[in-house]
Design the sequence.
């Protein structure tokens, strides 16, 4: 398999995995979502090594990015289980894009109202 053929195959697999990830998020299937995130990381590492064979894809920076991504996923899942915070968790889940880069693309204003203790 040539590098170009391999890269095209990996890109198709990555796109398929993105759809699987969306379905797992919608179904709130945490176990499947973790499996998909790990496979996604493996495939993006492989694609990166084909595109940039000299790049060190196991660098400390990459490990930190993966750790942050996993922590974000876990926190969003925890928020979903707290009464009243499901809308916030859904907003964050749809607004935080993970992968090679992490980004927030939310456009909704959030107002947090604290309840006074009686």
Sequence:
């Amino acid at each position: 398999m040539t590098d170009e053929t391999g890269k095209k195959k990996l890109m198709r697999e990555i796109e398929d995995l993105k759809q699987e990830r969306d379905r797992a998020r919608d179904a709130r299937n945490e176990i499947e979502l973790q499996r998909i995130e790990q496979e996604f990381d493996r495939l993006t590492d492989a694609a990166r090594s084909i595109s940039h064979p000299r790049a060190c894809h196991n660098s400390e920076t990459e490990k930190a990015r993966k750790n942050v991504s996993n922590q974000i996923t876990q926190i969003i899942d925890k928020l979903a289980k707290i009464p009243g915070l499901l809308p916030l968790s859904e907003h964050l889940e749809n607004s935080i894009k993970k992968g090679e880069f992490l980004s927030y693309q939310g456009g909704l204003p959030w107002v947090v109202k604290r309840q006074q203790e009686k």
